Amino acid sequence: MASEPNAESGPAGASPWGLALRRLRRNRVALAFGALLVLIVAFVLAAPLWAEQVAETGPNRGHTLEKIEVDGQQREVVDVEGRPIGPVWLGAGGKFFLGADGRLGRDEMVRLMYGGRASLFIGFSATLLTTVLATVLALLAGYYGGWVDSLISRVLDTIWAFPVLLLGIALGIALALGGLKIGPLEIPSGSIWITILIIGGVLVPYMARPLRGTVLSLREKEFVEAAVAGGAGPLRVMFGELLPNLSSTIIVFFTLGIANAMLFEAALSFLGVGVQPPDTSWGSMVGDGFELIGSSPLLTILPGTMIFLTVLSVNVFGDGLRDALDPRSKVLLEAHAGIAEPEGTPI
Amino acid sequence: MRKLGLILLVLGLAACSALGMTACGSGSSGKEGGTLTGSYASFPDYLDPALSYTAEGWTAMYDTYLPLLTYAHANGTDGNEIVPALAESLPKITNGDKTYTLTLRKGLEYSDGTPVKASDFKSSIERLFKLNSPGTQFYESIVGAEEFARTKSGDISGIEADDETGKITIELTRPRGTFTNELGMLFAALLPAGTPAKNLTAAPPPATGPYTIAKVEQGRAWSYVRNPAWARSNSELVSEVPDGHFDKIEISIVSNSSTQVNEIEQDETQWMQTPPPADSYPEIKDKYEGTQFRVEHPINLYFFWMNTSKAPFDDLKVRQAVNYAVDSRALERIYSGSLVAAHQILPEEMPGHEAFDLYPHSMAKAKELLAEANPSDRKITVWTNDEDVNKEAGVYYNGVLEELGFDTTLKVIKATVYFPPVIGSKKTPDLDTGWFDWYQDYPHPNDFFQPLLSGESIAPVFNTNFAQIDVPKLNEKIARLEQEQLGPEQETEYAELDREYMELAPLVPYGTNTVSTFVDSEIDLGKVIFNLTFGQDLTSFQLK
Q1: Can you give the CATH number for the domain in which A137 is found?
Q2: What ipTM was estimated for this complex?
Q3: How far is B46 from chain A (nearest CA, A)?
Q4: Considering CB atoms only, which of A81, A276, A293 is closest to B412?
Q5: CB B410 to CB A277 under 8 A?
Q6: Residue A182 lies in a domain
Q7: Does the beta-carbon distance from B399 to A60 stay under 8 Å?
Q8: What are the C-alpha distances in Å from A261 to residues A88, A195, A253, B179?
Q9: What are phi and psi of A195, to 5 degrees?
Q10: How far B439 CA sits from the closest chain A CA (Å)?
Q11: Is A1 part of a structural domain of the chain?
């Protein structure tokens, strides 16, 4: 990363958030990838606009038997042997810009944009769910310790013991038929929320365990003792004292978690247990395109590239954010990797 | 005069040359011996004739286990002819079509040298019931079979076998016009008495056909060698079954069909049982059709079903609207040209087929009918499985229903559990409409009407009447025709039945799917036989 050796130092009186922002602004690589992420988000948010104004079709609408005029010539969207039309760029006024998605003759560009919305939405929502659950569990386990810590830790260990992808697939298959019903909460099968719940749930231990460690060390700090001495109850200490001190760590985990959740969603959808047809995501587009990889490789390459760019930009930006919010963590990580000696007092 | 002589000479040479070529193409020339190598995309369900109920398994055992009767080793509808196999002749049917009498050929042996006995037929049928085989449904009409199925003890009293004379008498509880066909099914293949009533896929039982299964690596491969008993005695006795040209056949499992194609193209494997992947199907067809590739037309029906027992599909106009809305031409493209469009229940090669289309595609007509029906419940669930093209057919159908104004939820279920556990169970909620395909068990029209449309077939589990249509008048007609031997009169009635059901529109038939025979450059494609019931006949493969 391009951070300065003494990037963490700042003018006296600047707030920690102000200092972090300043450090982030100096990290040009992180900013560049942050900008790329913004572009990708803008691209997928523009999906309805492109679909209605340019492509004049929806993401799930098939055009198997239709013909379009490309540069003055009539061409079939899907030929009689089921081969989809390739990219026509602006030859048809933006319609089928990237060609058709397969034998159903859906507009690949429109599906790529809508698929990105689903991938990003699932990545964001699942990580938000993971973060909320992991933070609460980490605060409870770290603050109370004892049997509460043991119980929560063993539950997390049990989930951790399963290979995460296999657990996700198993849950996906189990919930594919009847959906999910827990008390008043009812989610029909095929809903995007099933995928969000699966990903959000199985990734909890991967965030909760390191957060719990941080809470354990924070609990011993003087400001916690002071709060307790001042008569603060457990809830006030956890959410009023510990949580603000965890925030920078949570933000970093959250950012990096989005990339992880997106990759997880892509894997589940590729395997047919994530986003269900006719809806799409980049992962399911890779899976669908894979069946036509010999004749139409772009159908796999395009969504695959979008996943790659998005995950890369989220990861690099997340790294930059971590460096900005908590410079010592970078030094510590480098120390663990044998890059540099740790400086200051380790947490 | 000299000129005329020259012309006659040239014509004579041309005629001789043509005759020679014809002889080459269909005669006995070609290499004998060697090893045929083939590939399947997945291991058959069973390599036990009593248990297998898939096209893959039946192809694998067509030339290994012989019933008393079999289907002619011939292409097209010629292969629908039932011919004697281990029996001397076709059954003598008496006693108001309730008694079938056959005689076992004398001198037959199993591959292990055990003599084939008439009582082996009885023990083989009893083994089906002991195993709870899916084939039991075809033999439940034998007197005592239902009791035997319940108790699994004693014997099936309706089968009498005399090992001395080879005479086999089968008594049925009621006439059953399909029973001759059912005697030709692999389920009725003879196995030695005392064959354990357990799945013998790992070590298949002794064979009576030209080949015997020599080695099985479950899930990976299996191989055949020539049946020694065939050369010794059976070949001469069972003239209706060919000897085969290869000494050995080795089949391996190659799960990736693109790899299967590569192996054929590089002459590493000589035959692939699986059709090429949809992606490369058109290219392979263009490149190899006629030389190494041939499209085959097994008897099947691809369709969408609509649950007539609940709204909105309890309304005839709604069902007719959906029939008008589905466009078979679109589905032909979705199936990459492997589908042959049709809009009726009986497929083309099935006896009784008479072509018609009551619902030529018209979205305007469909919308008009739906407006007239104006169903209050438009929230429906659409079911399909996750196999490559079937999933897309389901997505297409879902789109059509949405275009008609339904509020749809598409459920794509793993193919391995789609039927019977999911759509075959009445406990599954929201079984409104969905996709299915039906392949014939034997070439008899009853095999489509009885399971798919008769009210008697509506069952809590293993339900095959997905539309849950129950019309007493038509049920009676199916039941009556089932009791009669198939002839021109019955075929006409089945054709009428086809139209009567399509007028009620419980299904949206959209076509019959084709499969393919794809061989390498060394195999003589012209000689490969594809039987409509059993698939590729392994005895017909021969090197050029």
Answers
A1: 1.10.3720.10
A2: 0.87
A3: 26
A4: A276
A5: yes
A6: yes
A7: yes
A8: 33, 10, 12, 58
A9: -60, -40
A10: 23
A11: no
Token pair recorded at residue B375: 């169903």
A96: β partners: none
Which chain B residue shows the shortest CA-CA distance from A78? Answer: B333
B382-418 residues labelled b (16+ CB within 10 A) or e (exposed): bbbbbbbbbbbbbbbbbbbbbebebebbbbbbbeeeb
Residues of B in Cβ contact (< 8 Å) with A64: 330, 333-334, 396
pTM of the model: 0.88
What pLDDT, on a 0 to 100 scale, did the predictor assign at position A178?
81
Residues forming beta bridges with residue B303, ordered by sequence position: B436, B509
Which chain A residue's Cα is nearest to B338?
A: A81
Structural domain for A166, as ranges: 115-299
Long-range contacts of A63-66 (CB under 8 A, 24+ apart): A63/A100, A63/A105, A63/A106, A63/A107, A64/A103, A64/A104, A64/A105, A64/B330, A64/B333, A64/B334, A64/B396, A65/A105, A65/B327, A65/B329, A65/B330, A65/B333, A66/A105
Question: DSSP string covering A230-296, please?
Answer: TT--HHHIIIIIIHHHHHHHHHHHHHHHHHHHHHHHHHHHHTTSSSPTTS--HHHHHHHHHTTTTT-
Asked whether B178 and B447 are in contact (CB, 8 A), the reply is yes
* A191 CA: distance to closest CA in chain B (Å): 9
Nearby residues of B504 by Cβ (< 8 Å), 6 or more positions away: B308, B316, B319, B469, B471
Question: Which chain B positions have a beta carbon within 8 Å of A63's beta carbon?
Answer: none
Confidence band (pLDDT; 50, 70, 90) for B21? very low
Evaluate whether residue A10 is within a structural domain.
no
A278·B422 Cβ contact <8 A: no
Q: Alpha-carbon distance B240 to B539, whole Å?
A: 12
How many structural domains compose chain A?
1
CA B134 to chain A, closest CA, distance in angstroms equals 26
**A62–B330: do the CB atoms touch at under 8 Å?**
yes
Q: Which of B280, B394, B413 is opposite residue A177, by nearest beta carbon? A: B413
- Provide φ and ψ at A180, rounded to 5°: -125, 130
Higher pLDDT, B386 or B209: B209
- A interface mutation test: which of B333, B340, B510 has the most A CBs within 10 A? B333
Q: Check if B334 contacts A (Cβ < 8 Å).
A: yes
Q: Tell me how far CA of residue B295 lies from CA of B41, B155, B289, B339, in angstroms.
A: 18, 45, 8, 11
CB contact under 8 A, B279 and A292: yes
Would you write out chain A's pLDDT as a tens digit for each of its 347 residues?
333 444 444 555 678 888 889 999 999 999 999 999 999 999 999 999 999 999 999 999 999 999 999 999 999 999 988 899 999 999 999 999 999 999 999 999 999 999 999 999 999 999 999 999 999 999 999 999 999 999 999 999 999 999 999 999 999 888 887 889 888 888 988 899 999 999 999 999 999 999 999 999 999 999 999 999 999 999 999 999 999 999 989 999 999 999 999 999 999 999 889 999 999 999 999 999 988 888 899 999 999 999 999 999 999 999 999 889 876 655 444 554 444 343 333 33
- Per-residue DSSP letter, B164: T
Q: Does B386 touch chain A (CB under 8 A)?
A: yes
Chain A residues within 8 angstroms (CB to CB) of chain B: 60-62, 64-65, 78-83, 102-104, 173, 176-178, 188-190, 272, 276-278, 291-295
B54 touches chain A (CB under 8 A): no
SS3 B78: helix
Q: How many CB atoms lie within 10 A of CB B254?
A: 21
Tell me what the pLDDT averaged over chain B comes to.
Answer: 93
Residue whose pair of structure tokens reads 């004697």 in the numeric block: B84
Q: For residue A251, tell me if it sits in a domain.
A: yes
Euclidean distance between CA atoms A179 and A190, whole angstroms: 7
What are the tens digits of pLDDT across the range B438-453? 999 999 999 999 999 9
